[in-house]
Amino acid sequence: MGRTLQNTMINLGLQNACDEAVYQLGLDMEELEEIEEDAGLGNGGLGRLAACFLDSMATLGLAAYGYGIRYEYGIFNQKIRDGWQVEEADDWLRHGNPWEKARPEYMLPVHFYGRVEHSAAGAKWIDTQVVLALPYDTPVPGYMNNTVNTMRLWSARAPNDFNLRDFNVGDYIQAVLDRNLAENISRVLYPNDNFFEGKELRLKQEYFVVAATLQDIIRRFKASKFGSTDSVRTVFDSFPDQVAIQLNDTHPAMAIPELMRIFVDIEKLPWDKAWDITKRTFAYTNHTVLPEALERWPVDLVEKLLPRHLQIIYEINQRHLDHIASLFPNDVDRLRRMSLIEEGDTKRINMAHLCIVGSHAVNGVAKIHSEIVKTQVFEDFAELEPEKFQNKTNGITPRRWLLLCNPGLAELIAEKIGEDYVRDLSQLTKLHKFVDDDLFIREVAKVKQENKVKFALYLEKEYKVKINPSSMFDVHVKRIHEYKRQLMNCLHIITMYNRIRRDPAKLFVPRTVIIGGKAAPGYHMAKMIIKLINAVAQVVNNDPVVGSKLKVIFLENYRVSLAEKVIPATDLSEQISTAGTEASGTGNMKFMLNGALTIGTMDGANVEMAEEAGEENLFIFGMRVEDVTELDRKGYNAQLYYNRLPELKQAVDQIKSGFFSPNDPNLFNDVVNMLFHHDRFKVFADYEAYVKCQEKVSELYLNSKAWTRMVIRNIAAAGKFSSDRTIKEYARDIWHVEPSDLKIPPPNEPRDAGQDKTPNGTAA
């Protein structure tokens, strides 16, 4: 979520009033804003997308709740020591959190372990361990519409009789200390992005958020006029018309068997009725196609932790496979491919399959990704129910990612086209009229230059490196991962360095290359990549021949509040994943909206950005998905490229020989060995096209006016990438609710009783 203060002031229309009031107290608002800690309760794009969605849902007047875990420790703070990443605990609650309100009155029990007893009355899950879920509510204000939604985060608490009830005459002190075991559930965020780690505590977290949330939703449904009760039993027929639940990847997939357990075991609905309601309630968003990221939980772990849920999953699978067998008799291989249970050395539950079978809609997050989901990853399921599969291209909130972080540009745009674009970003197309307006071109360039000077000062303060603010700011910020190919950027840096050294008198367009992002603590290769970038920076930044022509900065502890500083100052945005690996990307959209040009592959939302702006207004290079597929078929041989390209050979040889690690010449052996022998992401195959494309970037940068005109064309084409547009599509195609642009009267004005009711019955 990042910081909340400035976003709240902007959405409430109070920023100027607050700035002025604080100024009159002799204080500086920006200084105050810098004191607030980021709420870093997610890893990367998936978590930040949810935050943008909350802002858009409130702005569109949807009755929506965001549910998650109130981690005591969020994503770790990254320190760089001697070029290596070191992790520190993110104790973000140390000074308290003024934005949250604990709601002990809504505390709910969550059960683990135990066993299942079957009788004529049905199944009973007994002898369980109980953990309490305590909700904390954070307000989510819409933009200037007096709507405030809720983000409800669950914290784990041990019940007061924990370890003290049953036959425990023993150690009272130890029993109280053991309360930590229960409360550890919400202690810390697992720091993996696009990687599945099948740990018991992580499964506990996933079930914890799901079980608490579903009880909360059902409590709210029963309290409403819709949960009509025939004598004692609630009638759930209208449940899917009143409730829509969107699964953000497979992490909350246990919600499907949990809702079935509630309906069948507790509410005593017949299976078929329960299953129909469940399917109509859930929809699933897929966020990645990387096989190592797909959740596959061992059956024996689920059996131990959630025995009833395993039985329900088996029953879902049995009925699912019976259905497929009736459509495709004797096709055992299809049954194997489509089963929720994967046989093998350890039996595992494929959570994506569970989500597809248990949902009425499945979507990818960019056109190209949704195609890959349909035709490759889940082709058997799409063949069965093609109407279930959709696309919903990601977006970003223009409130945080333009108004808040780039007020200069936001104001300049408003002067030209009015202020309405903030709620309807498609209006940015009106800027096309000004693409030849010399004054506007100069003003856009001036705002960018001011942002760069401000960021350069920040860098000099934090990193003690002198930055040339007229150099091209070439920025690559995102989680460190092999598929995102920070290594390819690194090879380009080394290539630029070698060219300057070879011919110091030759014209060189000065660059400041900024790379930032966190590596998962257990991801060895990603940590080596960070060390390599810092080792290269050490050499480049201290070479007198290079001087101010080329500087390399590794941006420490990249997070939302730092993104808000670096993105408005960026000239060139690096979006260079291997085609077919980045589901969408959202950083790409933030840079586009803030007046950077993009160098990128035809991957994720880059494809749609090129479609909107015209491919000639992005620097597109490298293999397309088809080329990658073809290269896989032929067999990728890295050695070929190394032998054919002298500059690539020189760069790789320097890494290999210890030119960048003189004290330990073998330091980067693992990296070099990977690049030659098991590079799944084919860095060498795109190197030549990347370097050539970068030459075109430098050439255009020399012509400031032509560069800025291209920038304006990009900003004018960025309207599609508002999360408001994305949420309208979810609302229309999946949740079946109507956004409302009614501005609720403020609390100090009386309002008619009729206005009390929300116009849309459904809560997402």
From TrEMBL:
SUPFAM superfamilies: UDP-Glycosyltransferase/glycogen phosphorylase
Record region (Disordered): 738-764
Alphabetized GO MF terms: glycogen phosphorylase activity; pyridoxal phosphate binding
Annotated signal sequence range: none
Membrane spanning stretches: none
Modification N6-(pyridoxal phosphate)lysine occurs at: K590
Catalytic activity: [(1->4)-alpha-D-glucosyl](n) + phosphate = [(1->4)-alpha-D-glucosyl](n-1) + alpha-D-glucose 1-phosphate
EC number: 2.4.1.1
Named cofactor requirement(s): pyridoxal 5'-phosphate
Record keywords: Allosteric enzyme, Carbohydrate metabolism, Glycogen metabolism, Glycosyltransferase, Phosphoprotein, Pyridoxal phosphate, Transferase
A single GO cellular-component term on record: cytoplasm
Database matches in InterPro entries: Glycg_phsphrylas (IPR011833), Glyco_trans_35 (IPR000811), Pyridoxal_P_attach_site (IPR035090)
Single Gene Ontology BP annotation: glycogen catabolic process
Pfam families linked to this entry: Phosphorylase (PF00343)
Function: Allosteric enzyme that catalyzes the rate-limiting step in glycogen catabolism, the phosphorolytic cleavage of glycogen to produce glucose-1-phosphate, and plays a central role in maintaining cellular and organismal glucose homeostasis.
Family statement: Belongs to the glycogen phosphorylase family.
Subunit structure: Homodimer; enzymatically active. Interacts with PPP1R3B; recruits the phosphatase PP1 which dephosphorylates and inactivates PYGL/glycogen phosphorylase.
NCBIfam families to which the protein is assigned, alphabetical: P_ylase
Protein name: Alpha-1,4 glucan phosphorylase
Species this chain originates from: Cardinalis cardinalis (Northern cardinal)
Gene: Pygl
